[in-house]
Amino acid sequence: MAGLRGGLPPTADTDRTDPGRTPVPSPFTGMSRRIDARIIRCLNDITGRALFPYQAAIVRIGFSLTVLLYLLREFPNRHGCTARRTPGRSTSRSD
Fold first, then answer.
1. Which of 15, 44, 67, 79 could form a disulfide with 10 if both were Cys (CB 3.0 to 4.6 A apart)?
2. DSSP secondary structure string for all residues of 27-87
3. Whether pTM exceeds 0.90
């Protein structure tokens, strides 16, 4: 049984490689470590310190503006969730 080692067929890395040819290094060697290190460095920069002196105030103002815009958008449809005649309204008026 020529070409078989211990009953196993030849593998690509043992029998089929040219012994005189040196493998070409991959340009992507170590790239995942560099990308991971860059992502970790960016996350540490963003979360490790305040980027602006009043960062918490800016976040609160932005959140309140978002809620205000939502309420203003829903204002014309405010009667969709409740009846037209609620206990606080007069029954003598017709809407």
1. 15
2. TTTTHHHHHHHHHHHHHHHHHHS-SSTTHHHHHHHHHHHHHHHHHHHHGGGGGGTS-SS-T
3. no
